């Protein structure tokens, strides 16, 4: 995640711990080790670390007390929707917002059927997420639900939220013969506009896409992306549907998702520049790009505040130096750590945080040809 490796394990109570993966002793990968009770043991020399990152045992030294410097960065975790969410940063608990819960349908198992999938894409996370927020591309990229006959976008104002935005737009549906399987059967008759509600949150890098095909028939796709590195993204997805909720239809609906994501990757992998966010002055955006503009604006504000990792420096020194994402404990007690905190592209603004971001009004007007 974010170009770095981590080890996750459960303690005796089932709580998930997440630590930096590089052992502070001789640099071995802790994820290649084993669990010893509530601890993870390094595969090289057996050093044992608890869920808070403290080294509790050095086998070669017997019962000798481990010095304070024997610690590794540990990161807060939460489990939501069957996923483990990790807060990679050093903010204290009162400055960390809760992960977004944009899929209430997940718990409505009597009326909604939910399937899950994971995709790894050879694309930058900013480009991948902007693609998901772009409703205008549907007409040209997706064969099953695009409609090139009527690509005009429904331009309605977006509603800004604390950590993102939402919008509802209508689209002309494709011809019935474009659908196959159970959707082809259920949508065989001509129908009116498809209403698509879209919402994203920069928290957790996630979005909710909710098309209503006709009154009473809808599905929701909730996806959260993890940047593996600047050029690769892992996307976790849940799809809930209130039609054909029998398990027999799961494979068909999952295959539909895989095809659609494959179509997206085929286009996004060719986009240049490959790594974002792209400056506004270097693209000609229009009113149809307001969701992407909101997303990109928030990213630029975070970069200005010193929240961007200096990947060029990290990569240049990768073979000779270990950097780690700083943890909340490091912020409380910044001295006496073995590994150095990752460099950033700009100095950190001590007054900027998630709550400050939520309070700001910072959306520029996109250039328009209209």
Automatic annotation (TrEMBL):
Drop me one GO molecular function for this one: 2 iron, 2 sulfur cluster binding
Q: Which PROSITE patterns match?
A: RIESKE
Q: Which residues form the Rieske domain?
A: 1-86
Q: Does the keyword Iron apply?
A: yes
**One Pfam short name:** Rieske
Q: Which UniProt keywords apply?
A: 2Fe-2S, Dioxygenase, Iron, Iron-sulfur, Metal-binding, Oxidoreductase
- Signal peptide residue numbers: none
Q: Report the CDD domains cross-referenced here.
A: Rieske_RO_Alpha_N (cd03469)
Q: Which InterPro entries match?
A: Cholesterol_7-desaturase, Rieske_2Fe-2S, Rieske_2Fe-2S_sf, VanA_C_cat
What protein is this chain from? Phenylpropionate dioxygenase-like ring-hydroxylating dioxygenase large terminal subunit
- What phylogenetic lineage does the species belong to? Bacteria, Pseudomonadati, Pseudomonadota, Alphaproteobacteria, Sphingomonadales
